[in-house]
Amino acid sequence: MKKIYTLFFILMAIAVHAQYKYGLKATNLKEYKATVKQNPNKELIDLEKFIPGIVLDIRYATTNNFTGEKIYNMAKAYARKPVAEALQRAQAELQKKGLGIKIYDAYRPYKATVRFYEVYKDTTYVASPYRGSRHNRGCAIDMTLIDLKTGKELKMPTGYDSFQKEAWPSSPVSDPEVKKNRTLIIDVMKKQGFKVNSSEWWHYDFIGWKNYEVLDIDFEELAD
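The structure assignment produced for this chain is given below.
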């Protein structure tokens, strides 16, 4: 019997190592639900339902992304409650200017971050699986701005997921319209408690991200 228990724990250890080979134990659905009971602010909010008029273009639910693979089975965007509320305020401010928000990605399961790293190991542009992404915490938004009348995206320095220095928010911009648009999105998001990523003009981290756990919960589980 002792040998059976020993073998069981060895197999369990191997399974855990295979699932968390980068040493990070992400929170699962059951654990997440327990944290939400203790702190309702940790709930992941469906942004499409919570923010009227917000537009989704979830690239990782398609093959139109840097991996060339369909990473998500559902085109959904979730964020922790305070993040969703801050984004709602940003949307309201932008609407006064005739503009709106288009989301490329929000909460991202940890397994997706692992896949991104295995495809492209430059952590200037992809998160390290040893630490996890702020997307994994439900505290990061990939986005751009759209004209509400036409539905068209405003001109920005690069397209989404561009692994070029031109995508850095600190890079010089010669086109005055692009410069104006980049400044606007950064300023509006900063006002609502977000900080732009140093290598991605489209990526905004919620300032309180450290208070939230790395999650590995599929959209299908959240939608149930």
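Interim note for the steering committee: Residues 4-18 have pLDDT under 50 and may be disordered. The chain has one domain: 27-223.
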